[in-house]
Every structure is written in C-alpha cells, then in structure tokens.
Amino acid sequence: MTEAFQLSRVTRYLTRWIDLKWLMLFNVVFPVFVLAMDSSSLFILLPRLAEEFNTDASTIIWVAMSHCIVSGGLLLILGRIGDAGGKSRFIILGTLIFAIGTCFAPLSPNIFILIAIRLFIGIGYAFTMSNRDALLTMAFPKDQKGLAIGIQGIGIGIGLGLGPLLAGIFLEQFSWQLFLWFMSLAGWLAVLFSLVLLPRDSRTSRSKINVYQALLLFLTLSSFIVMLNQSARVGLTNPVTIGSAATGLTGLLCFLLVRKNTIGSVIDFDLFKSRAYSLGLIMLLALYLITNAAIAITPFLLIHGFGYSATKTGLLSTLFHGIRLFCSPLTGWLWARVSSNLLWLLGNLTLIAGLFLSGIADGTSSPTLIIFAGFTLIGWGTAMIETTSGSVVVVSTNSNRLGSASASIATFRQVGLGLGSTLGMAMFVLISSYLTGTNAAEIAPHTVTQSALISSINTALFICGAIAIVVTLFMLLYWRQLDREIDPILAALRKPSNG
Questions:
Q1: How far is CA 324 from CA 152, 154, 361, 369, 466, in A?
Q2: If you count Cβ atoms within 10 Å of the first and of the last residue's Cβ in the chain, which end, N or C, has fewer?
Q3: Are 384 and 150 in contact (CB under 8 A)?
Q4: How many CB atoms neighbour CB 380 within 10 A?
Q5: In a 3-state reduction of DSSP, which class is residue 448?
Q6: Claim: this prediction has a pTM higher than 0.70
C-alpha cells in the first residue's frame, strides 16, 4: 500500500477478513459499473426516444453524448485537483450527482429537457471517473497494477453488457421511463456503498488550477463536438457549423497562450514527454472514436433495418462489452509478461475484423450469426486495446501525478466517446441523405427506407474499419521506440514485490 487511507468503522471491521486493496477495488468498480450500465443503455433507448419525441438523428444522438461533452471538459481539471488528495471524495460526490440527475430524467417533457439533464449528469461522470485509476494504482503493488485495471474492466464490462440487455427488456415489457427509474435506484445504491465503505485518501495540499484555462479547455472540446454534430445536419457552410469551428479554434489558441503564462496548468504537459504515455492515450482516443461510432448506429440497424425486438437488440449489443469479462483480466495478466506492442497489434487486428464482418450483414439472409461474430470480435479487440493502453499510461507515470494520468485516461475516453457517437450518426445522416435524396436535417432513423438504412450503416462500419487500419499502421511506426521505453518498466514489474 503506497498511501494510508482513513477507514470507516464498517470498513475497518471488514478488513479483518478482506484485504483493503480488494475493498478499495470493489468500491471503485461499483460506481463505475453503474455509470457503464447507464452509458451503454442509452444507445438502445435512442430508437424509441427518436420516435416518441419525433426528432431527427442529429438531435437524438445528444442524449447519448451530452454527458461526454461535460465530463470530457472537466476530467483533466478534477484529475489535477485530485493529485492534491481527496480522490475518494470525488467518487462519492460524482455518484451523488448522478443519482440526483437520474431521478429527474424520466420526468422530461421534451427531448431538450432530457438533454439538459444528461449534461448535468455528465458532471457526476467527471467526478467519478477522474481519479478511479489513480485510487487503484495507490492501493495495489506495482506487479498487480495491470491486474487491478484488468479486473476493473470486468466491472465495466458487466455494466456495459447489462445496460443494453436491461434497456431492451424494459423497453419491450414496460417503458423507457421505468428503466431510468431503475438506473436511479442503482445510483443511490452506489452512493450508499461509497459513503459507508469507501476508504478516504488524505488531502495533502491545495491544488493550483488556472480557472481560465480550465474554462477554455471545456469550451474547445465542446465546440468541436458541436461542430462535428451539426456539420452533418446542416452542412459545413451553415453559420452554426462555422461558428462552432471558430469558437473551438479560438478557445484552443487562447488555451495554449494561457498555458505559457500560468502555473498549475490544467494539463500536465510534462507527462507527454513519455512516448509510451502519449501513444497509450492516442490509442485510447482512436479506440473509443471508432467503437462508439459503431455502437451508436448499430441499434438502428438491428431494430429498423433487420426488424429485431428491443430485447434481441440489447442481447446482441451486450457482445460489444460482455466479452470484457474474459478478455480484460486476461490482458491485464498478460500485459506484464509479454510485449505491449503485441497485445496492441492483436487487439487492433481483432477490432478491424469485427468491424468489416459486421458491415457485410444485410437483410437478404439471416444476419444474426454474422452480427454475433462481428460484435464479439469488436468487443474482444476493444478490451485488449483498452486494458493495454490504460496499463501503459499509469505505469509510465510518477506516483505524485497519478491523478493527472487517471484523468487523462478518462478524458480521452469521454472525448472519444462523444466524438465517436457524433461521427457515427454524422456518417449515417450524410450517407442516408445521399442515398435517399433527402435533406440531411430531415433524416430520422425511423423514417428512412430499410434498404437505405442498412446500406448507409454498413458503409459507416466499413469506414470505421478503414480508420482502425490507419491507427494500426501508425502504431507500427513506433514499435521499436516503444519497446525501448516499455521493456525496462516490464522488467521491473516482473520482479517479486513485497507490497
């Protein structure tokens, strides 16, 4: 144990039988499990919400990505604050915000109120996700850090896998409102566990964060996501698209200028001097961009394209994430024993195969077997890349900067998820508009013809596969350099630990 934790009376009693690191693992993983279940379930709800609120594709996707915008802009800020101590308190506050927000979501009278509530819930995501990896790294010895992150992947995998399945069952048997009430109950349970059982790390110092730089970072990230979303809906020359792009570029320029004249930068740029750290984050960003683009559009393919029920759609969608139960801990165990580059390569090749296989499914013959195999390969490749990249990032970081590293992982994840959802729906809208001759702003998934919908989504999956190929080639360029940097870290991890 690298840092002393303050234990509640209940936790102190439980440590008579359970090692503190495993209690810490449970109390970090459970809130993340709830958030994962919430995040993945939204894509199954989108087809129903689009019909009920009678809205277009570019608007409905905001339900699934709005929390990513807020959390993506706040994570690095909270990570830097977390480096001063009090990481566990962030998880408690995050679960509380999530539980409160989810109570109001089922009461939304229109789509815009629901999106606003999801924006508020994004704050809870940011607090919970910003320091989770840092807490686990503090609690586990060096030779078990990869294993801890891999086991965390089990909790995330269960949550991500259960979300679509439960959402499908609730949609078919009850209503989307009742499912959100169920998620609220799970959120309050996470609050209870965090308050009673989560060990508290001590607050050691005050963190100096430049508020102006933090606001500029949030403005930059959110503006670029809005630009990508609206460019597909209203075109590149529309004032909304141009204004969003100009705002994002201005925010980025000001962010860089403020960085040169400030102490306590929101982003710890010194960490990016490590090639392993930088590439690990790049791989995560690319991974979430690609996979979430596919995950955002495939429920429409299954429900409106193939005529599957919400339950069957949810069951097949669990393959994206449920495979983590096996792959994440296996990859975490292998990571300290074999080359990270090899795991990255195998993960990318598996992901590429899954995307292209999923893209050949059509309605002329039973596509279920193809979808099953494709989604399984996508999930397996995702778990390999995610676990390997996260392990590389945290072990290449000094212990006093783990909050920043943990927040960087979560930030690149949330930004990738937000951009991926936007990219997937943008490709669907643009391709559907081209095939049907319909104005992009009027494209709604439930009104597009079956053949056009299947063709447009399959094409989008092929594009995702092509992007994954480019990412793989980029990784291969740095194969030898990464070996030289990572091999000494792996050699140290293979030594017996006394922790």
A1: 10, 6, 24, 20, 24
A2: C
A3: no
A4: 23
A5: coil
A6: yes
